[in-house]
Amino acid sequence: MTVVDVISPWETRVLSLKRPSDPPGLKTATEGVAADADHIYVTLYHFDPQEPKVSTAPGQLVMLRATDGVEIARITVGHQPRHVAVDALRHRAYVVNFHQDSYSVSVVDTAARQVRTTINLGQVPIRVAHSPERNRVYVTNPFQGRVHVITGPNAAGNGEALLNSITVAPGVLGLTVDDSADRVLVTIGHQVNNTFISQIVPINTATNAVGTPVTIPQFRADPEDVVVDPVTGNSFVINLGMDNGGTLAAKISVFNAALQFVEHIPLPTDASHLTFDLKTRQVLACTRDNVQVIDAATRKVVSVIDTPPLPRGVAVTPLGSRVIVGDTQDGKLTIATPVGVGPHDVSVVRPDDLLQLDFDFVNLRVDAGPNRSAKLVKIDPGQPALIVVNFPPQHLAERALTTSDVFTPPLVSRLSGPSRLAFRLPSGVNELPYTLASLLDWAKL
Predict the structure, then answer these.
(1) pLDDT 10s digits, 37-68
(2) Is residue 61 a contact partner of residue 41, using CB atoms and an 8 Å limit?
(3) Which residues of the chain have pLDDT under 50?
(4) Which of 170, 300, 306, 336 is the right S-S partner for 145, CB 3.0 to 4.6 Å?
(5) Cα separation of 147 and 175, whole Å?
(6) Strand pairing partners for 190?
(7) Which residues share a beta bridge with 118?
(8) Measuring CA to CA, how many Å separate 175 from each of 122, 146, 148, 172?
(9) Which residues pair with 389 in a beta bridge?
(10) In whole angstroms, how far apart are CA 370 and each of 379, 402, 429?
(11) Model confidence, pTM
């Protein structure tokens, strides 16, 4: 059983994407989820639970507002869409259509809210990931043992096409883009002559060269998904399968930046999808029952997000740490928002200079006083108290041009991550005024 250090509450809202006009007797799957700063993207299709391999009609990409979850568009794509990746900069969504009536990727213009083109890939595409720096899209195909490379739109806003198909190995499943290391990481799971193969493989995104496979120890098969911590380069592989002793065991295997094995993180039930929250540096694992939230540094479960039964697919909104969870059969979509551990966290914007800060309080509570006054008071005087000041991203880096370069927008750019300062209240100080001036008087903290 996984040890839980801290249980952080989450506020969850469950939406139904079903419609009264949906075909009767069919289930509704919303497995593929993604998000940018403005929108949530969800794949949707219907299926007969008695004949799940039969596709009755093309599926859809549903767009919702990120702020309130209000549906704003439904775009018809291919049959049984199961995964989606988003390029917010170029206004594109790439939808993997799993069913044999399609076996393709639908390229969606998210501004015009229409399909620009459909790229046929053959049996059978599974997962998709996007590289902002290279303007490339990568799609795994376990039947062919390949990773398909699709070029994104050019400066004129068109030109999306299949660029290459890289032969890796049969059973290529999960993938993630690690732009900081110029590579894509893919997972392999298959069986040869009663020998189970479970591996992680790097692919150089500059040359498309396939690197040396690394065996995932103690596991037989089904490494379903992989994510990377861009700060440390550590990768996390989710395993849905058995250990070498034949025991069913769902775990996350951790590798360092050099792809050396570090440890396994046990999970309570089968798991299939991962995502990484850069703001909190947490790994989110979608299990059979819920979403396990894991601290990337300590590699321990720190909270659990409750969802309807059989969730599938998980994503986070950029900078907002709102978690989006899909569903396998009931057309549900869970939107989870974290509630701060401190009961009176606060966000401020100073009117004079538009300074924006988020404050978290540890072992402190707000006590109201007369005439709308208030103060921060230690909850346990015998324990340390912290004021944590969170800064939004403050730097933007973009590619520099030489005098001989041809300016071809958009230029590659990268926004820095958030940062924070933590101040411990001095010894003997058990309270302080709850005012903006006090919170910003760091010389006294």
Answers:
(1) 889 999 999 999 888 888 889 999 999 998 78
(2) yes
(3) 1-8, 340-344
(4) 170
(5) 9
(6) 197
(7) 106
(8) 18, 12, 11, 8
(9) 359, 421
(10) 20, 63, 22
(11) 0.76
